[in-house]
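User: You have something folded?
Assistant:
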Amino acid sequence: MTPSALLRPLPPGEGRGEGDTARPSPNPLPKGEGFLGRRRTRQSALIACFLLPSLAIFVLYRILPLFWNVVLSFQSWSPTRPAHFVGWDNYQDLWSYDDVFWQALTNTAIWIAAAPIAIILALAIALLVNSDLRGAAVYRTIVFLSYPLMTVAVGIIWRWMYDERGGLINWALRSAHLIDKPLGFLGSFDLALPSVLLTDIWQVIGFYMIVLLTGLQSIPPHLYEAARVDGVPAWARFLRITLPLLRPSLFLCAVIGLLNSFTSFDLVYIMTNGGPGHATELLITYIYKLGFGQTRFDAAAAVTVVQFLLLLVLTFLANRAAGGNAGAIEH
């Protein structure tokens, strides 16, 4: 056979065996592709199995009650009567006729406005214990000790300290000849809210200090050294290095302060129960009284929606003030 005959293409069917009719796949899968695909599927199924219980609990105890609360705020319902749709009537009653709601909203706004005071004090303490101060570790421990205490215990202790007859604060003020007669801190319409606020600041300032101290210790020291070599004064180093790099920590403290303003039920309930004359009434305590004291769950749901929307707006504004990407993961 000549070489040209060897190069000539074979006719269809020629040169194949009897059972050799199958052609190979034009795009065969790479070796191991099917195994890897099955492995990824198994991993995804395993992750879903771990996440489903937590997601189910979150949906059952968070999302569904939230939607049910919104629906309830547009209804007239209590355990003693069937529910029926009333539209915006519950919100109109709050807006036009409920003076206690406006008092609670005002007190909550004051509580929110007091959060920056606690953060500023905590930042000052964090700067102090982050310096070369002798015994800084002892001071840090003493300041932080207030935070792990139970809020109920803190309320009872400070209620005794504010007592008009045998309280420690009245005794100290009279011993220093600053007052002639005892002050009724928790019984006065003007002094009750500042007194409870001071207690709240005392308890939470230790946590703020730890968060801000962690942020301070994460700032590279060479930035301060370079600025010091360039002759930058201390106040300029604080404004141009410390504050910008502390922005995530400050944002965290601000959000925690907002949440604390909306959830300080136990402290107010133990110390004053919203009194005297609703002077320390917060939205969260008013919701409790409407729902479980007056069985007006529809009105309580409306106040809850107002509080939730207010919290969303304030958190959004805090995020914008922090740069708009606080909490984002850097890639």
